[in-house]
Write a structure and sequence with these properties.
Layout lengths: L1 H52 L6 H14 L3 H36 L9 H14 L4 H9 L3 H25 L3 H24 L13 H29 L1 H9 L2 H38 L2 H37 L8 H16 L1 H10 L6 H21 L1 H28 L6 H24 L1 H5 L6 H23 L3 H16 L1
Helix pairs in contact: 1-4, 1-6, 1-9, 1-10, 2-3, 2-5, 2-8, 2-10, 3-4, 3-5, 4-7, 5-6, 6-7, 8-14, 9-14, 10-11, 10-12, 10-13, 11-12, 11-13, 11-16, 11-18, 11-19, 12-15, 13-15, 14-15, 16-18
């Protein structure tokens, strides 16, 4: 049942993600051509800055979902109702706080980022970004409840489907008016419409959303205490994520220009397809995994963890190889050869893409188990990233910013965080041996595949792309051999074979 729900959630999310990706690339093309590189740079910069606004959420959604797994599994309606009532109050305060924080960040933009001052009306644009961000918290309690209850597909249909409609109207606005104000107001109207849909379809008549909470005071205090601890821990994780994932745009705009923000953002948009896809999988499976962990032994949890790692490292290898050989051709055909970067810079960026996929198993297990106590690691990650990136940016420019992210990812994401998680999950004083048992063989397989691809690099580089048909042919040239080599090498692993047998069994059973 858990596997079926996870697959259903993932299929729904994958379809919506595919539509959003296609529309995202098209609207970026229209935006650059209609609005120019400076406004595009402002749009990308402000989009990243909204992540700092979202720090006000404190990680409440994930923390509350992890607290809800057990009551939902055991039908403890009074506890569920109380948790949702707490969320209602908390998100009202967050709505107001985001507006205030937006004003503070707007002042910082004015004094510290000179490049945005050349754009007229820039602070009105920022005000709309802030309001749109705060408005998303109006329906946050509904999405949290549904996600925890393994109904993430319903959330995705409302949010993702709404985003598809928003983008379509934004494209029309850009084509016929070239107005950034109207572009942002369409987003406002879309978010408000999503709130109304959540309230009517999800909220009305739901047994968990009663105003009457029949729970003794001691149980209320226990829930508050647990939620407070998990929110505190998740907040530090959110800070670390923002400092790593969103600071690069700030540094590029500070040390380079808005045009470079557009170039860098174009590559990141391609790479973020992978991030979005992985987030879809994490969101789809986390609730089921939370239910799984309640009833399974350490031996069974280790077995599924090994399977996760071998699958995701295989996928990371496939994605990274294809991205490396194809992304420059794609960027050149999409928005022009003037927006491409060197192969060296692309290779550096691909390292972070690889890590973003390999980290997925530990992210799933952490969110499902609620082990968010590694609160200092995200701060370490953020400090490392900013410090190294600034120093190297002054010396070597854009490569230094990317290297700073790589170093922080390797130290914290690939080592410190997984070791902490598995020490808690399996109650081990030294989890190093267990963790390296999970990743050592799959990483060796990955190196073998990369070695084979290195031998074939000259033949791939010699293939020139002039048309989109040429790009499709090159895509087939790169992807087909890489799939065959990956399957041939990784299928020697029993966990790889077992995982696919499970998936095939679930599909055939339907």
């Amino acid at each position: 049942m858990r596997t079926k729900k996870a697959l259903h959630n993932f299929k729904v999310d994958l379809l919506i993600t595919f539509l959003l990706v296609l529309l995202g690339f098209y609207i970026r093309t229209v935006f650059v051509s209609k609005m120019g590189s400076d406004i595009t740079g402002v749009m990308l910069l402000f989009t990243q800055l909204t992540a700092y606004l979202n720090l006000a959420e404190l990680g409440i959604g994930i923390a509350a979902a992890s607290v809800l797994y057990k009551p939902l599994s055991e039908n403890e309606y009074n506890k569920i109702t109380y948790i949702i009532s707490l969320l209602s109050v908390i998100y009202k305060y967050i709505f107001v706080f985001v507006l205030i924080l937006g004003v503070v960040i707007g002042i910082c933009i004015y004094y510290f980022i000179d490049s945005v001052k050349v754009v007229n009306g820039v602070f009105l644009y920022w005000a709309l970004f802030v309001f749109n961000t705060s408005l998303t918290y109006s329906y946050a309690k509904y999405s949290t409840l549904l996600t925890a209850n393994q109904r993430y597909s319903a959330v995705r249909k409302i949010q993702g489907g709404g985003k598809v409609i928003i983008i379509v109207f934004q494209i029309l606005i850009l084509c016929f008016t070239q107005s950034f104000i109207l572009y942002l107001l369409v987003e406002t109207l879309g978010i408000f419409s999503q709130y109304l849909i959540f309230k009517k379809i999800i909220g009305n008549g739901n047994q968990y959303l009663s105003n009457e909470v029949l729970l003794i005071e001691s149980d209320k205090l226990l829930i508050k205490k647990e939620l407070k601890i998990r929110i505190k821990n998740m907040f530090f994780h959110k800070i670390g994520a923002v400092l790593v994932l969103n600071t690069d745009y700030l540094l590029v705009s500070k040390f380079l220009t808005l045009s470079y923000v557009t170039i860098f953002g174009s590559y990141m948009m391609v790479f973020q397809i992978v991030t979005v896809l992985m987030s879809s999988f994490v969101n789809a499976i986390t609730a089921g995994m939370g239910n799984y962990l309640i009833n399974k032994s350490n031996l069974e949890i280790k077995e599924i963890t090994r399977q996760f790692y071998v699958i995701f490292i295989a996928f990371a290898t496939f994605i990274s190889l294809n991205m490396f050989f194809l992304v420059n051709d794609f960027i050149a055909k999409w928005i022009g050869v003037n927006y491409t970067l060197s192969n060296t810079l692309v290779a550096l960026m691909i390292v972070n893409v690889f890590i973003s996929v390999v980290r997925v198993p530990s992210d799933i297990l952490k969110n499902a188990s609620g082990h968010f106590g590694d609160i200092y690691y995200p701060l370490l990650e953020g400090v490392l990233n900013i410090t190294i990136s600034i120093i190297l940016a002054i010396i070597i420019g854009l490569p230094g910013i990317i290297i700073g992210t790589i170093v922080s990812n390797l130290i914290v994401i690939m080592l410190a965080k997984p070791l902490y998680l598995y020490s808690k999950l399996f109650n081990l004083r030294n989890p190093t041996r267990v963790y390296f048992e999970f990743i050592s063989r799959p990483m060796l397989y990955s190196l073998c595949v990369i070695g084979v691809s290195y031998l074939l690099r000259d033949e791939i580089y010699s293939f020139k792309v002039s048309t989109w048909l040429d790009f499709i042919n090159k895509l087939l040239l790169v992807s087909t051999p890489s799939i065959l080599v990956i399957c041939a090498i990784f299928s020697t692993d029993s966990d790889f074979r077992l995982f696919f047998r499970k998936i095939i069994y679930v599909i055939m059973k339907k």
